[in-house]
TrEMBL record:
Domain (Aminoglycoside phosphotransferase): residue spans on this chain: 43-216
Pfam families found in the cross-reference section: APH
Name used for this protein in its record: Aminoglycoside phosphotransferase domain-containing protein
Species whose genome carries this gene: Paractinoplanes rishiriensis
SUPFAM superfamilies: Protein kinase-like (PK-like) (SSF56112)
Length: 271
């Protein structure tokens, strides 16, 4: 890890364990920090986290000016207190609704570089080519993925100009990105998926196609409009295809999550 060693020398860090992709636990002069390599539009990530921190959310704060490289930046963050817990899904949904209220209050409406809307993601011809190429080695899975993609393209085509609440979203509002101390939220981390889109797109990784109590809890704090209920599944499918381009060897994760069953959404369709 020559580059990590260089960063460690510049900031005089004692390197600890790897705690995530491109993320290390480190110490300096006895104080704990987190070292993270942010790829892509890293300034956007820091901007969103800072805006939410100013509204009272415990987000990671840089301890030094980032060390910029061609594809991103190394950032040294103050370590937030607390530990990962698994709050009840309903509580997590309520918390996400509160976050979205403040996300709109940040006033950030620009799109993050490298991100597109869900309709653009599924309509991209490069995605179709990738899925058809995948079909040469995984015909059954590819057929299922292409059908989901085609259905989602058709849905967005039939709902052009859909009007649903938008804001910046966290992008990965999962239990392992929440820290708690003495029963209170002490950390909201990992803004690598943050961008501007429909707010219900934040359900993609928090709900994951089946954790319906996340939706119920959210709806208790900010009631979802009918158009948002209809939008949940299409933006979820689009999220599954983020980053799928060129030859791909394994889309089993996408297939498994495509097959997740939501009794809540199914019940709304039949009512």
């Amino acid at each position: 890890m020559p580059e990590v060693d260089g960063v460690r020398a510049i900031w005089r860090l004692d390197l600890g364990a790897v705690i995530g992709k491109g993320t290390w636990s480190v110490r300096r002069a006895g104080t704990a920090y987190v070292l993270k390599l942010l790829i892509g539009d890293w300034r956007y990530q820091l901007r969103v986290a800072k805006a939410l921190r100013e509204l009272g959310w415990p987000t990671p704060e840089p301890a030094e000016e980032p060390l910029i490289r061609d594809d991103g930046a190394w950032v040294l963050f103050h370590r937030l207190p607390g530990r990962h817990e698994e709050p009840a899904d309903r509580d997590r949904g309520r918390l996400l609704a509160e976050l979205h209220a403040d996300a709109r209050a940040t006033g950030i409406t620009e799109q993050r570089a490298g991100f597109r809307g869900p309709a653009e993601v599924v309509a991209d011809p490069a995605l179709e080519r990738s899925l058809r190429g995948y079909g040469r080695t995984h015909p059954d899975e590819a057929r299922e993925l292409l059908a989901a993609r085609d259905d989602t393209v058709a849905w967005f085509a039939g709902h052009a100009g859909i009007d649903a609440p938008r804001s910046v979203i966290h992008g990965d509002f999962t239990p392992w990105n929440l820290l708690y101390q003495n029963g209170r939220l002490s950390g909201l981390v990992d803004f690598e998926g943050t961008h501007h889109t429909y707010q219900v797109a934040d359900f993609a990784l928090s709900w994951r196609g089946y954790r319906d109590d996340v939706l119920r809890g959210y709806d208790e704090v900010r009631p979802l409009a009918e158009v948002e209920w209809a939008l949940i599944r299409p933006v979820y499918v689009a999220w599954l295809f983020l980053g799928v381009a060129g030859p791909v060897a394994d889309l089993s994760w996408q297939v498994a999550h495509l097959r997740k069953h939501s009794a809540l959404l199914d019940g709304r369709k039949s009512s």
